[in-house]
Amino acid sequence: RGHTVVWNSQLPSWVSSLSGSQMTTVLKTHITTVMTRYQGKIYGYDVVNEHINEDGSIKSTPWTQNVGNTIFSIAFTAARAADSSAKLSLNDYN
């Protein structure tokens, strides 16, 4: 199982300076690169990791600050396109 493709806790500092459209491009490229590299070797991925607060609201992260809640649809759409047979998950705690 692949853990994790998108996580706000492990980002290079330059990501925060990107515009929304640049961030979307970087996100899609990253997901496509990782998931096509391991296609057929990893059965499933935690696509988005720890982006929901304990009260159910969406966390404020560099991703959500620049692309809003569309982070989820962008990430899952890119992941499905990269590997149509992989099991895709949203990973969080509590």
TrEMBL record:
Q: Which GO biological process annotations does it have? A: xylan catabolic process
Which GO molecular function entries does the Swiss-Prot or TrEMBL record give? hydrolase activity, hydrolyzing O-glycosyl compounds
Q: Which residues form the GH10 domain?
A: 1-94
Instruction: Identify the keywords attached in UniProt to this record, alphabetized.
Output: Carbohydrate metabolism, Glycosidase, Hydrolase, Polysaccharide degradation, Xylan degradation
Q: Which InterPro entries match?
A: GH (IPR017853), GH10 (IPR044846), GH10_dom (IPR001000)
PANTHER family, per database record? ENDO-1,4-BETA-XYLANASE C, GLYCOSYL HYDROLASE
**Name of the protein in its database record:** Putative xylanase
Organism lineage reads as: unclassified sequences, environmental samples
